[in-house]
Amino acid sequence: MRLTESIALGFLPFAIASPAPVIKPAVLRSTGLNSWAPHNAHNGYAPVNVTCPINRPSIRGAASISPEEKSWLEKRHEKTNSGLKQFFSHVEIDDFDALSYVESHEEDTTDLPIIGFAISGGGLAAALNGAGAFKAFDSRTEGTLGKGQLGGLLQSTTYFSALSGGSWFLGSIYINNLTSVTALQEGFWDFSSENFFSGPTSMTTTEFWGNLTTQIHAKKDAGFSVSDPDIWGRMQGYYFFNASDGGVDITWSSIAKNKGFQEADLPLPLVVLDGQSFADVESDPTISEPIYEVTPWEFGTYDNSIYGFAPLEYLGTRFVGGKVPDNETCVHGFDNAGFITGTSSDIWNEDGDDIIAILEYEMSLLSPNTTSGAEEIEGIEYVMKEVIYALNSTNATLVGASAFDPNPFYQYNPETSPFAQDKRLTLVDGGEDGQNVPFNPLIQRKRNVDVIFAVDSARTTGNLWPNGTTLVDAYERSLVDLANDTSFPSVPDVNTFLNLGLNAGPSFFGCNASNLTVPAPLVVYLPNHPITYMSNVTELQTHYNATARDDMITNGFNVATQANGTLDSAWTTCVGCAVLSRSFDRTKTQVPEACTRCFERYCWNGTIDSHTPAPYEPSIIL
Ligand SMILES: *[C@@H]1O[C@H](CO)[C@@H](O)[C@H](O)[C@H]1NC(C)=O
Ligand SMILES: *[C@@H]1O[C@H](CO)[C@@H](O)[C@H](O)[C@H]1NC(C)=O
Ligand SMILES: *[C@@H]1O[C@H](CO)[C@@H](O)[C@H](O)[C@H]1NC(C)=O
Ligand SMILES: *[C@@H]1O[C@H](CO)[C@@H](O)[C@H](O)[C@H]1NC(C)=O
Ligand SMILES: *[C@@H]1O[C@H](CO)[C@@H](O)[C@H](O)[C@H]1NC(C)=O
Ligand SMILES: *[C@@H]1O[C@H](CO)[C@@H](O)[C@H](O)[C@H]1NC(C)=O
Ligand SMILES: *[C@@H]1O[C@H](CO)[C@@H](O)[C@H](O)[C@H]1NC(C)=O
Ligand SMILES: *[C@@H]1O[C@H](CO)[C@@H](O)[C@H](O)[C@H]1NC(C)=O
Ligand SMILES: *[C@@H]1O[C@H](CO)[C@@H](O)[C@H](O)[C@H]1NC(C)=O
């Protein structure tokens, strides 16, 4: 029997323990804490109708990057030139003056490299591991301009993509005024509560769920469908967005209004989401489902099928055939920041209910005297589903996927888009297609990325280490006719990854540009491996005390720097060589001897060894 809405909302499992459930109404106003961030100031979590501007918003075709990106890149280009000079002021290549090389080529806008940085999904563990690499590359981190360090690489980077758990980290930086990892560790990130479901330490669980349900109600009352990332994303807000009420009214498009972002102080943030046909919502997306990206300005895909982008700020508006009909009004506030990260990490459709698995896992870790665990799990599961069912008028399941309702691509490109007749677009976790490192935005040839630093925290071996699957999936997708303007270097099969140890430490792919039929980036693969900490923590874990949190981040830092050069004193040189490799080709510069040695050591040379590998069981290296 389906409970009525009011019963469902009153049936918070925590009421069992507490006297009467006190549901604190969410404070639906902006307190101006993030005064730079234009909140959806009118109405808290609920999207609102606004008068359309005179130039009514429309869907643009995907034949080029957006005009906003184009003009932003001009500014970023100046910053990355300075970044490269900062980087090569301390990273040396023997018998080659890299700093002078950069200085002598900075006038020509196409000579110097365009760098991409991508961090994978894999729950909070992936967010922390990705944060470690980001911290190592960020010259704002103390000590990163010294020997064996890589500070300035982030300042030299143009694009930063993330998905799923990785998007929680990306959001932590960009939604919090372009803060740093050190600042997050010292002043905000707190994962010490029991789990994500019990709410942050600053409030009771009852209060937490009271806030969530009130907030989500507001969206429903405004006439919008709600789906699981509304709940999941609102939960994340309290852990990752340093603002009142978990950033209830902060939109993703507000990043574009941030001064530091407008000054192009950090790379362009790109979040990946996967499409999924509604009929198949219980399965993982097939290779042909769209891969979407969210920039601070737009949501859409370069895939041949939809091949269009919607203005992010106006998501929630009823577009028909790419236009807003005269009788329709415009909508603001649909692109709530948590809704974006919540969709990118929406694994509710996988294996039954994976988010419930997170809860079960966390409950299993609790001390034995919390025996109400099982009941609590059932209770929460029940409430989450009931909230969603009760709020939506039909029983057509909205549990299991993200509803982008209305579909901004309704009747758009009907000849090629399988979604042109769908009133609602269905999305799931950005890593569910197997491409768990968000390469897709970085391999669009329109973006001319030369080198991608790929941090992989996938849990694809039996004991939760990455094994290269994500590269194989990215490569395979680049070969089929789904996104015809993408390219990825050749990579071997997964067995070869394990047999040659390509997942046991850094390895480079696509080093030899002459061996490529179409230009593709060089990929610097940085698989998670245990240098100072057993970082193969399950993606289901959402509880870390401050020590464990920092140990995870430091291991990620050590992977990126190869333990500050302890594992290879030439590592920073080799990173510098990877950065400049395509630039050397363009400027017809003789590859320095030191770089040739690096490439011999780190580049996959085409060898295949596909026999069944022994189990991969690394132990802590240092
Ligand atoms: C955001 O960061 C910039 C640069 O660090 C700083 O000047 C500004 O005061 C910050 N804004 C807020 C509201 O914290
Ligand atoms: C979090 O917000 C508080 C209050 O605005 C601010 O003092 C602090 O620096 C912020 N922390 C981070 C990591 O942004
Ligand atoms: C690439 O995709 C676009 C958009 O779907 C299409 O117009 C074009 O014909 C495609 N080109 C090739 C070579 O497939
Ligand atoms: C690079 O690839 C080209 C074309 O396949 C090949 O002729 C050349 O030997 C390769 N260079 C190296 C260093 O492997
Ligand atoms: C922090 O967590 C780690 C790993 O779960 C555990 O070994 C350690 O004892 C904890 N430390 C504290 C102070 O609770
Ligand atoms: C490398 O340097 C960082 C930053 O100083 C430090 O946290 C880390 O422990 C160092 N790694 C090793 C293996 O000493
Ligand atoms: C290529 O790599 C394999 C294994 O990593 C190695 O055994 C082989 O000698 C290398 N071949 C060349 C030509 O360098
Ligand atoms: C060179 O290109 C061929 C053909 O695409 C491919 O099979 C081979 O693996 C590539 N070699 C390397 C080292 O990437
Ligand atoms: C982590 O990996 C080690 C081997 O490298 C393995 O013994 C351990 O069970 C793994 N941990 C988890 C949680 O799977």
TrEMBL record:
Q: Which UniProt keywords apply?
A: Glycoprotein, Hydrolase, Lipid degradation, Lipid metabolism, Signal
Q: Which domain of life is it from?
A: Eukaryota
Alphabetical GO CC annotations of the entry are:
cytosol; endoplasmic reticulum
Q: Which reaction does it catalyse?
A: a 1-acyl-sn-glycero-3-phosphocholine + H2O = sn-glycerol 3-phosphocholine + a fatty acid + H(+)
Quote one Gene Ontology molecular function term: phospholipase A2 activity
PLA2c domain location: 51-609
> Which Enzyme Commission number(s) are on file for it?
3.1.1.5
Which Pfam families does the record match to this protein? PLA2_B
Listed GO biological process terms:
glycerophospholipid catabolic process
Family label: Belongs to the lysophospholipase family.
Q: What does this protein do?
A: Catalyzes the release of fatty acids from lysophospholipids.
Name of the protein? Lysophospholipase
Organism, scientific name: Penicillium malachiteum
Species lineage, top-down?
A: Eukaryota, Fungi, Dikarya, Ascomycota, Pezizomycotina
